[in-house]
Structures are given as structure tokens and as C-alpha cells.
Amino acid sequence: MNIVLVLSDTLRRDHLTCYGSPPWDWEIHAPNINRLAAQSVVFDRFYQGSFPTIPTVHDLLTGCHCFQGVGLSFGTDRTLQAVVSEAGYVSMLVTDAHNYLTPARGIHQGFSGFEFIRGQQGDHYGTAPREVSPPCSPEKVRQYERLLVPHLRNTAGRVHEREWFAPRVFQTAIDRLEANHDDHDRFFLYVHAFDVHEPWDPPRWGRGRVEVIPVPPDPQLEAAVPVQQHRDRAGRLQAGRFDEPVRDRPGRATSADAGLRRVAGRPVGPADGRRQPR
pTM (2 decimals)? Predict the structure, then answer.
């Protein structure tokens, strides 16, 4: 069996109608993800063991609990990509999570190949324009100089939706599947899209995909448009809708690494303090 594993960063379960009605009056339409959920087992009591992104990825790829970085040891722990490689699988990583490749982590190690989409969040990739225009007062942004300024430089001049990060990541994964489907008897494709994580940076014209625009804009609404960008290409990947057939129908799994538990002061998920299911 071939394996496709998709991790959508900070994708909240209450943004997906396959988990029930959202706790607000508007809805994000994700027909491909809903179709996949209807054909799959939906784990509605699946809780993350560690937090935030990198500790969760560590748990996922090693099976070892490291909660908030304690015991984080990609260099010594046995990884999923190493296990499947020993079983004869070709493994591939596609991600725009800029913190995967830091020397202290090296999460790409052990994969047969990897493709890294540069420029997300605090990735020091572009150097121009030197002066950037913040979308709001810098003091409202978490680590403005470290995280948002590089992002604004890296994304200056974007026009088409295909240039945003979520479409680029998932289209790259689809291209890899189509290009290699005849060459490998068994493959493991791991896709980690950093959206819907901050900065919530949808195309301005994309806001028309949701019905209500609060003033000032609600961060959760800002996150809704990247979710809808997932709808098109992530849904196509997860539903197996690519141009060329893969030799064996792959097993597909999708998850998120984390999500906030409250919306507009109201709890989302269990009331006993456990982290939100992913």
C-alpha cells in the first residue's frame, strides 16, 4: 500500500464541517475534504500529545512523546521515514515549514527526497524590498521583526492564488505524485503545509469566499481563507484527484498539529482542559 500523510498546521477542527456545525453563522466550504471524511474513519477523540508544531511533528514521526520540546531528539530517535525506507518504500517530504531544516532539527533527514517551499513566515529568504509596509501596527504582531518582516519581503509582488503557500505546497505534492507514479512500487509521501498558521495572509479578493467580513477583521476569518485554499488543492490531493493514476490506491491520512480552544470567548471542544482533537 502507498501512503500519503498530510499535516495542515494549526487547522482547527471547528473550521471543518465534517466534525459538525461550526460555532458561528458562516461556513467554510471544503467539499473534497468532506468527501474524504465520508469515505474514511474520522477520529473525533484524537488528541495531540505535544505542543506546538515541532514537538507535535516529533511525536508523529518518532512515536515518542516530547511535550513542548522536552526530549526533542530527531537525531537519535528512530523515525517513521527510516522505518518505511527499511521496508522498501521511497519516502518524500514536501513542506513550507521553515523550521524543519534548522541544524538543531534536521527533520528532513531519512527521507529519500525532500522539497522545501521557501519564504514562509520567518524564513530569511528574500532581501528586497528593504522597507516593507506592515498591515497593522507592529506592536500588535507577535515578534514583528523576526516573523512578519521576512514574510512581507518574501511575498512582495504576489498576484495569483497559485503563488500563495498552501497552493504551492499541495500542487508540488501533486506534481511529485504524477511525475513518479510509474517509478516506485511503494511510496510514502509526507506533506506538511504551514498554513493555516499565522500570519493569516489571504488574498484580499479571497475574502469574498466567506459571507461576513467583521470590522476590524477577525483573525479567525482571516484564517478561513487559507482553509479554503486548502479546499482546492489539498482536497484534490487527499481525495486522490490527480491527472495520472497512482499504481496502487494510496492510504491517505490528514491531521493538524494544534488549534486554539476558544472562539469569541466560547470553548471549542472538551471542557475538561484537554487539548483540542486534531
Answer: 0.80
